[in-house]
What we know:
Strand 9 and strand 10 form a beta hairpin. By secondary structure, this protein is mostly beta strands. The strands form two sheets. Strands 2, 4, 5, 6, 9, 10 and 11 form a seven-stranded mixed sheet that branches. The protein contains no helices and eleven strands.
Amino acid sequence: xxxxxxxGGGLVQPGGSLRLSCAASGSIFSISAMGWYRQAxxxxxxxxxxxxxxxxxxxxxxxxxRFAISRDDVKNTVYLHMNSLKPEDTAVYYCTVDLTTTxxxxxxxxxxxxxxxxxx
Length: 120
């Protein structure tokens, strides 16, 4: 059993900042990639940022220079630091973790989603 718990969403004014967190717990042997996707109303889910076990990162063009992804491998937690937020960043944000369980099963797990609303 693996659980992902997200936190940190909310309402923020344009130009503001938020930090999202996603903690993985349970029967985890190792974690490779951790990342964040988002889905706005009426739109498809899209990749926001991804970080691999070696520290390499990948960002959507729309968030480059404003968002930063990081991970704490001791806490099995991934963070998304969001700065200079824009109304178009409004969406439900989902974390995803690619891991191997203690039963040697590899799978992607998803968080429950957290709402981020950017509005004045």
